[in-house]
Structure formats: C-alpha cells, structure tokens
Design goal:
This protein has helices spanning about 20-30, 30-35, 60-70; strands at about 5-10, 15-20, 40-45, 50, 80-85. By secondary structure, the protein is α+β, with helices and mostly antiparallel strands.
C-alpha cells in the first residue's frame, strides 16, 4: 500500500533545507484534522520521511500540508515546504538481490 517514500522538508529564508520533525508530519496525517480521504494513504515514518500510496497526489499534498503547518505555527511566513518523492537509490542502501537459485 505505501509504495512511495517522500522527503518532507522545511526550507528556511536562506534556502537551507531541514527535515520536518516527525510530530509535524504525524499531526497532519491524522484524518480527523485533515478531513480529506485522499491523504489516508500516508504514513509518517521519521523526521523528514513519509510513505504514501500511489493514489496520493503530490500536487495536492504539498499545499495542504504547507497550509496545515502554517496554521499550526510550524512554518514561518518566510519559510516554504518541499515534498520530494525519493527514488530507491536516493532513499539509501538497498538490499543486494539474491543470487540466482538461492533463497
């Protein structure tokens, strides 16, 4: 279900990128706060990292999350939110494939 990994970063006024704290992401992901079923397929994993299903549209997730973070006071007016879909190579080391014939 959660086939995509997303980096969730706060961009400060100087352009520095910082992983958003897990509690920010978790707070957004609670359905009773967002009240939007399209975001049900999200799972906060750690600071700056969220997993999501294929039906979660990033073009809607980013502004909805930024708006929520601003309303909660997490993002300052001069800061921005960046959500980037990570590729397996960008997401860290991957396990080596099993040798043919070995399980």
């Amino acid at each position: 279900m959660f086939t995509r990994r997303l980096a969730v970063r706060r961009i400060d006024a100087q352009g520095g990128r910082h992983a958003c704290p897990l509690h920010w992401i978790d707070n957004f992901a609670m359905r009773n706060f967002t009240n939007d079923a399209v975001f049900d397929d999200t799972l906060p994993v750690s600071d700056g990292l969220m997993e999501a299903g294929n039906r979660v549209p990033l073009h809607r997730l980013q502004p909805a999350m930024a708006d929520w973070f601003r309303r909660k006071g997490y993002l300052k007016p001069e800061e921005q939110l960046e959500i980037e879909e990570l590729t397996p190579a960008a997401d860290g080391p991957q396990p080596a494939p099993a040798a043919p014939g070995k399980v």
